Amino acid sequence: MSEPVLRVEGLRVAFDHPLGKVQAVDDVSFALSPGERFGLAGESGSGKSTLALSILRLIKPPGRIEAGEVWLAGTRLGDLDEDGMRALRLAGIALVPQGSMNSLNPVLRIGGQIGDALAEHRLPLTGGEEQRRIAALLAEVGLPETVARMYPHELSGGMKQRACIAIAICLRPKVIIADEPTSALDVVVQRQVMATLARVQRELGAAVILVGHDMGLMAQFVDRLAIMYAGRLVEVAPIAEMITRPRHPYTRALIASLPSLDTRGALAGIPGLAPLLRDLPDGCAFHPRCTLAVGRCRTEKPKLRDIDGAQVACHLA
Amino acid sequence: MVSLIEAVDVSKRFAGGLGRESTLALAGLSLAIHAEKPSIIAVVGESGSGKTTLARLLLGLTEPSGGSIRYRGSDLRKLTRDERRAFRRDVQAVFQDPYGVYNPFYRVDHVLTTPVRRFRLAASRAQARELIGETLRLVGLQPEEILGRFPHQLSGGQRQRVMVARALLLEPKLIVADEPVSMVDASLRATILGSLRKLTDERGISILYITHDLATAYQVSDTILVLYRAHVAEAGKVELVVKAPQHPYTQLLISAIPRAHVARDWLPNDEDRRAAPAATTSAGCCFADRCPLAGPDCLSEPPALYRTEPGRAVACVQFGQHPALPAGGLGEVLSV
Amino acid sequence: MTRSAFRYIRRNPSLAVGITLLTVLALFVIVGNLLVDTEDARPLSAPTLRPPSREYPFGTDRQGRDLLAVMVAGTPLTLRIGFVAGFLGVGIGTVLAFIGAFYRGLIDTIIRGIADIGLTVPGLLVLIIIAVSIKGTLTVNQMAIVVASLAWLYPTRTIRAQVLSLRERGYVEVARLSGMSGPSIIFFELMPNLLPYLAATLVSSVSSAILASIGLEVLGLGPIDAPTLGMTLYWVNFNAAMINGWWWWWTAPTVIILTVFLGLFFLTVGLDEIANPRLRRSA
To answer: In chain B, whose CA is at the least distance from the CA of C192?
Structure first.
């Protein structure tokens, strides 16, 4: 692939809990091509949101980034101090956070909040220029200009989410991280919002990391998908590959557990529970629930390796 | 034959605040649920459709603005103490949020021992322990792993299953499950829904499964009721409604679900840039402003429910040539 | 258990400071009562207007009271007024708040109306009028009841707000479905969750009650024979002790009053943090 716009290598994030250290992200590495749509899927407690936040160094104590490097188009983020990171957030990598609905300031008008984002990065704009810029941004996400003068509570859920996208793209970032942007939205509105995100991303040429747990949404939106389990990457593959030929037992079980709209059949869940991140089993984190587990799985932690264009962390793949 | 629980032309309107008009949460709905042939009825709709309002009305947690809810023929608001106790035993609930339903002050045992105590389901402490343990095993949980713990020590899936066990303790005839798995992980959803299905098949308990997720509704239920903005859009056997939807809204809903298959047919090519429309108070069909087939007939009055097949009814004027559903007919369409 | 308690105190310094100050005060009173004869708190027990010395560590006042004895005897009296009034106030307030917020409707409107209107009336003024109207002088207990008559207004308001929000919780609905009656729900489901909040309200109520009682006493409306802190300050004013340079007379009660209020204040802040987990600092 061409020069990756974002490269993550060996990222480890841990939380200090009185009952033990919680390894939320364990040795995660991946690379993003410019303009690529990358999915990060996993269930609750898999570490995907923590991973997204740690790329932006937004982890607060008691969490800490233990190890790893992140490069944004050649700049190593570890070299930047806090001011440098602040300049990078929104301008280089933008975040559409989980629960965006609640991250809009309820007492400020939408236009003002976009203006704040622009001002924070000290763009020399006159009043009129700023208004035009804001109107243009709103139009890009399919919102009428009048929204700039409205408060968040006057907008519907889908409109608020699109406003958050507008803030995320206002400085033309190279990478947009969307953390479960549509999880609280109705299915019809979800499609509108995702269509907006897709178009905006295409026009900007930005790469998108879509964090979520809806496999159907991933299947329809992303180019490549990474599956996380217990803080580790277990499979990374082009989306069509992953759906037709899932290689990791967890991926297979996950896809099998999806309720289909085509045939009514047996409902198949994955037995057992995801492990507590502070009490991970030895070896492969999935082995207690895996039907194929052998002795090696209980003792040796599998590494992510390349197999036919996909990456799998399983001894038996 | 008296139904177990029945909504008779029930409507619910929430009063608006200062300067805001009232919201219609549920327009006149008539629905009868009988206990004789246990089945799972799905109530599907998006937010604002009225599905949660319907659940709360049937559970007696809210009072209707118009019409009435009847338990074995008697109006819920006028039940005697004994009738009310019988009602609470026959109709139970499982809610969406596996966190808020637990009082953080107590261990999870509290939520199981309370109904045992209140309804005197066991003669002694030992018997109560026996009963609770057995019920927990029924939903796939080990009593040793659950009892004695505080809610925050259990996973969301475990908490939700304990709630199902709680509902089961009273041996109800109907469980109203309001989004029971939407806050639970995908891999666990199928397991919990599977155990709900077993309750119907093996123990004869009917379930009203309220959800926005059509896919799980399709998998687990027998019949389905599709609500849109306080009105019924379509109702009938789940195979008919989901595989061959007739109401334009149902068709829109099903097409808007992203499928986990290789074909990329979900994102629209020409994006609908319209923002969500404001709530309409017009006299016609509530879907008219978004319907691709809307015509002048749709704007004059709301359509009746037309029975297009023995196992399905649709509220759309294009099926006007079919017979309209009589009052109480919805229960018949939705029975297996 | 104690180890985690100590760790918690390190994270919640306000609670530690509050408890320490109040403990110091308690020790002062307890030890003082053992070492000092409280009869010396009466007038004509000692030579008048002596500055602090080895014999009279706090000095004496114009009527010949040994000020150390006064402090040792008076502090618990002042505190007692505060506690009785505070407890009464929060007790009444809790009952009214629960009834109003849980059952809503007319009863809630009445309770809330009285509380809201009552709060707009200047409290001290009402207390003064009540105190003045009572024939003869007040005893310490009567004082407490006078203050309690208004002390329930604010707790009713704040506790009602808390109950209003709690009653919407999922577990209240589940309790209903499990067959619990209204009063059972109030007592077994809502009350336990409000205990930290009630404790914090109690402490601040006690604090206000002490302040109100001291205010009344300084104005001369208190129990004239009792050696309470407020009465001491009344005599300080009456005899113009500040102008006359009898600094020891007003220093002792001032320091003790400050300690009481600071102790109660920090205790309130500390309890607030327990009641509201969002205020908790991370370890």
So the answer is: B105
